[in-house]
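TOKENISED FOLD:
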Amino acid sequence: MKNDNQNNIKKGTIICLIAGLLWGFSGVCGQYIMQQKGITTTWLVPFRLVFAGLIMITIGFIKQGKQFLDVWKNDFLRLLVFALCGMTFCQFSYFSSIAASNAGTATVLQQFSIIFVMLYTCFKNKKLPDKKELISLVLALIGAFLIATHGNIKSLVMSEAGLFWGFCNALAVTLYTLIPVKLINKYGALAVTGWAMLIGGIVLQLVFKPWTIETNLDTQVITAVIIIIFLGTILPFAMYLRGVVLAGANRAVMLSNMEPMTATFLSALLLGQQFHFMDIIGSICILSTIFILSARPDEKE
């Protein structure tokens, strides 16, 4: 049993690391088409979720047949909550954060999710944060302060929208991590992810009517959207949720720190994004919380 658990943790670790890399790359693609091609979040996210959801559902029916509908029959309400509060909220806040700042900064602020997961775990277990948890919380707050103000308390160098959506995304990732664990254990990551994406995409289609938004779909935009759908949505979301089941929610969030490192490096390399020294120090503060907390016994929520 012990060896099986260790193997599951190793598999989950690898899966979450790859998911983080793919997310980071897709974030840079999203930054490119939104900031240089004029694509809006209200156009990109609804189409991304609908197309990705349809593809995953098709794969699911091929693999599982009518069994793929079981989650609708038995746990529709929980699926709906995850689709709206987890999947849709996560997707929309993520790209809104990128549009208002950049892929690197957005993904660094996203790592506040580990603090939210930590606080949830403390509340669930009815205990106060221990020494390492308190240090991590302080470092995360310092990091956010440095990124937002560059150390000057009288000025805000990061847009209010970027800061708002960054923290919304961190909360969304927390919900995305915690809500679907029981569903995935029962129905599999493919079914839960596919249906949640389709539900979320349809809801956003009805709300924003993206087909009415004027968009210049040139070769670069189409290529970036395809990358975002396949390499930034279908693969990493299913992989991450599977990694949560195998390695636990706390460890999964920690391992996803590959995303901000990848996004920061690629946005600087490919898009010429410049980062201030205080941005780097703030990012180190936030990312260090992942390593400080990584020694904690993992708990599968």
Remarks:
- The CA atoms of residues 181 and 245 lie 7 Å apart.
- The radius of gyration is 19 Å.
- The chain has 13 helices and no strands.
- The chain has a mean pLDDT of 86.
